[in-house]
């Protein structure tokens, strides 16, 4: 006899592709579909395509004879989103989708409960419960996602922090160099300008311009077919100039993390996203900058005779890789059942 | 007949003087004692002196015939403190008091429940419940206290944020100028180096060195008896060089506040401490920097047709003045009864 199972669906909505995953109660992936995000067809059309995927996965799995119950759907979307209302903000990678009520639209079509989070928050939830934070039993942490840009998710006291308007915070746009590079957001010197994949390319180009740059780095950044962050990482295994590029990234990331620790005194900071694969290349410079710039990190009082690095804020790479967002989305309905709600800094009410 | 009253004691422990206040249920001050903090006599002796003050105030008030019940004692102490254990850290202004179990020592001598907070958190609680935040009914905010140094208190989801080791965060030591001035804490370019009273003196001395400084500012910073931040504020009412000093302070404070908003998307930030009296002198430059450096502040979506400044993070001066710390301390036992506990980011447990 097959047990009655409570399943959840996770959706990872991206500007290029969208993944839908069906997970069992132990968060094992049962089935997964990937579809191209037809941005120009508009959000309603995309929601219907997702709903069709969910429906067909549901029917296929049910056909196996197992009596199933779908607990709900979790969806991770690029931000900014108003997480209180479930309405999308101005999304640079999803033009024309502004102000679309994603959560309610998906709930209407699927007739299932839908929980919406930013993709960065979804990844943070997955790393917290099933990844880097799993064995720690901590109830607070930050995740910084180093991808094309820099995203962030904050968990305080066992709840996802949503902030005032559900934007929750944009650590990627915290300032690390006040007189620094002009960011696409309009500010100067945002962390994202230095610690993202695009930031690495900029740092590499700048390093190649210096007098002591190796011919290899100069060749890489000037080659006709362009170059990627992976090319710089590959070169860095035995090229000192490329290594310095990662030290530079680590330095700025360290300033950003130091500020997080100074402001919040958090026990765990997880660094994820594509750039996290180069952890060994940037981590030493990152830790140096965290020590140099964070009084709170340096002050942390050892609580045990045997002083360990873990007695301070523990800073480590993510362990779940690119599936964190999908997994975290699928966790949302389960956490909602467990009453792990998000913390909304309440809106300013009527001030007379 | 006199009603049965639930009273609380508040204590504001300072490096120079200590105040003890007795408050009624509507948080009106009934009686207050001020005593010199005899630092060199040691913390136990100071605790006994406080207990004597409490005892005599208690007896005097009871002698009036009112049947009273003391709900508890709240104490605000300079940080860093381990708020989980109630033990003092390395306090620069209270030499020799390191590792003193302040909370338990006071509870033992007074035989009353004692609640301990950092002085900055106590002031934040007072401004939240009875000051700048009173009419807003918000459950999250930050208070930045610009005094000799820069302190901070954070309230998230209706609870004081204590962080990993109870240090809660040191916004004053968040970096605003990575290559900036070396701070006493060992880091470079901390907010405290620019936005405190001492920071203002440094900014004034630097401004007086510039070619276009007015003779009045030059005279002030070079006069034999020295000068204070109040002298600069007084001069600034009609001296452009002194005004620029406050613009400069506002600029750096704005970068610090922008980072708080970028990271946390908070609805309310209250600026207190002695320097807050010069709000009009630094606020325009502060707001300019907040706009320039905070994507989240600029993005804030108006939720009403009638767009108001309040639809963004509301940044305002504190209203309670120097009594905020004492008042907040006296509020602690009352909030504890209401079950408004603090949020501790739990410690890293055993990682095997």
Q: What gap, in angstroms, lies between the N and C termini of chain A?
A: 64 Å
Kindly state the percentage of residues in helix of chain A.
Answer: 25-40%
Oligomer classification: homodimer
Q: From the coordinates shown, what is the CATH architecture of the largest domain in chain A? A: 2-Layer Sandwich
Shape descriptor of chain A:
globular
Report the biggest beta sheet of chain A as strand number plus sense, adding barrel if it closes.
Answer: 6 strands, mixed
**H/E element order of chain A:** EEEHEEEHEHEEEHHHHHEHHEHE
* CATH topology value of the largest domain in chain A: Nucleotidyltransferase, domain 5
Q: Enumerate the spans of chain A where pLDDT stays under 50 for 5 or more consecutive residues.
A: 302-309, 346-352
The CATH class of the largest domain in chain A, by name, is: Alpha Beta
Question: What features would you describe in this structure?
Answer:
Two copies of one chain form a homodimer. Chain A is of the alpha/beta class. Chain A is built from eleven helices and 13 strands. Chain A folds into two domains: 5-119 and 335-344, ATPase, nucleotide binding domain (Nucleotidyltransferase, domain 5, 2-Layer Sandwich); 132-319, Nucleotidyltransferase, domain 5 (2-Layer Sandwich). Chain A has helices spanning 43-63, 102-110, 119-130, 192-195, 197-208, 215-222, 229-236, 240-264, 279-293, 295-299, 324-337; strands spanning 5-13, 17-23, 29-36, 68-77, 81-82, 87-88, 114-118, 141-146, 150-156, 159-163, 268-272, 314-317, 343-344. In chain A, the strands form three sheets. In chain A, strands 12-11-8-9-10-13 form a six-stranded mixed beta sheet, with helices on one face. A five-stranded mixed beta sheet of chain A has the order 3-2-1-4-7. In chain A, a hairpin with a 3-residue loop joins β1 (5-13) and β2. In chain A, α1 (43-63) runs parallel beside α2 and α5 crosses α8. The model of chain A is unreliable at 302-309 and 346-352 (pLDDT under 50). At the A-B interface, β9, β10, α8, α10 and β13 of A face β9, β10, α8, α10 and β13 of B.
